[in-house]
């Protein structure tokens, strides 16, 4: 059977709102398989020789060590900021301390690859206008109980920049995502007026990690009011499509329930992706054209 893409109504909703929820996109069996693979990865990774790299959503303290910058073809583990005490010691088991796992699950894990490189996702990509979609990163976002960090309002194309911007995220809920455990919220339609005015880059030949530069002639988007954000219900198995320019965020998980999600991002392969971007694929680290072709 030929995989179906989005309906006309779904395409129109994505174009209008900049995000789209597709409930039940993953079967309960696939949710269980991906959740189980996540649990296995968290149990198997070792602390020995780990640099204890923390993932920060604060632009002034964004990470950029070698462990992070050289993760495009690996499965690596990044810690929550609040998983450590003032002496730098973990305050919880390592399995409960990880913020995210990335960035090559779509290539190195059979389970995650099966729900990334498939006919259904190809059909969805065609529905939203991609000519040559490249999968460039994949992650498990753990949003750990009681310490899962806040993610402030942002646009994905700032971090995965192409000229012109083209990033789209596929975000799969592996657990129910609620207001209590840090669900996503969106400013509907903001992709139409919030231009990409900056980008995250590698700084000074990688010696200083990552930083942000502003784009000439582009007006920064205004900061939305709190009541502009919409938090749609998102049960386990839901796929959320996220336009690279839409403003979205999530709050701290203060509950005792985790909020695991699997997400991958793709860009238009026909657009310019340069070597300023933090995410580069070895061995060339030039041009970004060794990313995984979704249509291949």
TrEMBL record:
Family: Belongs to the PhyH family.
Gene Ontology molecular function, alphabetical: metal ion binding
Pfam family, one: PhyH
Protein name per Swiss-Prot or TrEMBL: Fe2OG dioxygenase domain-containing protein
Organism whose genome encodes this protein: Lipomyces starkeyi NRRL Y-11557
Keywords from the named record: Iron, Metal-binding
Coiled coil: none
InterPro entries: Phytyl_CoA_dOase-like
Cofactor annotation: Fe cation
